[in-house]
Design goal:
This protein folds into two domains: about 290 residues, Aminopeptidase (3-Layer(aba) Sandwich), CATH 3.40.630.10; about 110 residues, Alpha-Beta Plaits (2-Layer Sandwich). The longest helix is centred in the N-terminal third of the chain and has 34 residues. The chain is an alpha/beta fold and about 400 residues long.
Length: about 400
């Protein structure tokens, strides 16, 4: 039977309602998870309690759960259903140092669990496998990039998640990013009695910073270089023999990021050359690729969210966010990363005030709406012959060597 007939439309409506009922039945569990994650925030790669809460909930719901996947103790997967189309739903749950879930990852993670539970109710009828991926360390490190290399996404034909925000949005992009720890090693000496015996590591950093500032005039449009000195000496009368810093390079694409990195590396090398200090550059975590959202999936999500009474503006590809390791996934797998909004007053993300709104009534609604909108998006993909065929063809044809960002030890 053709999936484009009125009968198929009626079936889609039935599948939507069945998934809604399943989520309604699990609402207390899902919102309890969101509040529990919020109450016990954990940092990147340290989310042991958070990962266990999600894995335990999914196991109790009848999913086939694997813990510690891809060599990551705080990563997990949970699968249900059967069929040739595997839909991946990414759950984030790491927090920020000192300010907890100021990026709303308790909402993100709980919404993904909600989507998986709702979708599992109709997975066999749709001929799909719903696969929840517990992805650690989005804020620092890039667990999704680790899991890509570990093979967790190899069978996934489409991936999705929602992200907490002050307002709903689809189609936005993000910047590719690379982070470095910079260390200059010189030689300490008394600053007055024998300065000529010293090699000033702080001067090396100063030369590099001036070079980076001069380079900004010719920097690729959209390029951003930011950093902070983390140690710069011990006393005013001692020439600093060791200085450390952390620097981020961002660009609108991975390709532009590589060129930017080359020039910024040369700026740091200039500091070493000018002063005689030794330079060490250490990659921090994974590079994050730019986010490439699948337009057809975005449209399905927008229709689903609006059917739930949400106001979602039409996609605006020019709107740019920060950086996310979901970008790495999107370069390999057709993906969406819409923003799910809730009232947070004047607070902005990555701000302590935003944390406070993460367990509000509006945030709880975002968890449930985001989860159901993703489930309905997946139903739309599976029930439509053209969508399904496109995703399966991409899965067969895609190049598993796609640049998802190098490992920390590749540099």
């Amino acid at each position: 039977m053709s999936r484009s007939t009125p009968t198929a439309a009626s079936a889609t409506h039935t599948w939507r309602e069945l998934s809604r009922r399943r989520l309604t039945a699990a609402q207390e569990q899902v919102l309890g998870l969101s509040h529990s994650l919020h109450a016990e925030p954990e940092l990147a790669y340290e989310e042991h309690r958070s990962a266990k809460k999600i894995a335990d909930l999914m196991e109790g719901a009848g999913f086939e759960v694997e813990r510690g996947v891809c060599g990551l103790p705080t990563a997990c997967t949970a699968a249900a259903g059967s069929g040739d189309l595997v839909i991946g739903i990414c759950a984030e749950y790491d927090a920020l140092p000192g300010i907890g879930h100021a990026c709303g990852h308790n909402v993100n993670g709980a919404a993904s669990v909600a989507a998986a539970l709702a979708l599992a109710e109709v997975a066999d009828d749709l001929g799909i496998v719903v696969k929840l991926l517990g992805t650690p360390a989005e804020e620092s490190g890039g667990g999704k990039a680790d899991m890509l290399r570990g093979g967790a996404f190899d069978d996934i034909a489409a991936a999705m998640m929602v992200h907490a925000a002050p307002g709903d949005a689809i189609g936005m992009t993000s910047l590719a990013i690379s982070s470095w720890k910079v260390t200059y090693t010189g030689r300490t000496a008394h600053a007055a009695a024998m300065p000529h015996h010293g090699v000033n590591a702080a001067d090396a950093m100063m030369v590099a910073q001036v070079a980076i500032s001069a380079y900004r005039q010719q920097m690729v449009p959209g390029g951003v270089v930011s950093g902070v000195v983390t140690s710069g000496g011990e006393a005013a009368n001692v020439i600093p023999g060791r200085v450390t810093a952390e620097y981020d390079c961002r660009a609108e694409s991975m390709e532009e990021l590589r060129g930017l990195q080359e020039r910024v590396r040369a700026c740091f090398e200039a500091g070493a050359l000018a002063t005689g200090a030794e330079l060490a550059l250490e990659m921090l975590g994974n590079d994050y690729a730019d986010l490439r959202q699948d337009l057809a999936m975005s449209d399905l999500y927008r229709d689903a969210a609006q059917a739930l009474g949400r106001q979602v503006p039409a996609r605006e590809p020019a709107v740019r966010g920060g950086s996310t390791d979901m970008g790495n996934v999107s370069r390999l797998v057709p993906s969406i990363h819409p923003m799910i909004g809730y009232d947070c007053g004047e607070a902005v993300m990555h701000n302590p005030e935003f944390t406070r709104y993460g367990i509000s009534e509006a945030a709880d609604r975002a968890v449930l709406d985001g989860g159901l909108a993703m489930a309905w998006t997946a139903i739309g993909l599976a029930a439509d012959t053209a969508h399904r065929a496109r995703l399966l063809q991409r899965l067969v044809a895609r190049d598993s060597t796609c640049d998802a960002g190098p490992r920390k030890d590749d540099k």
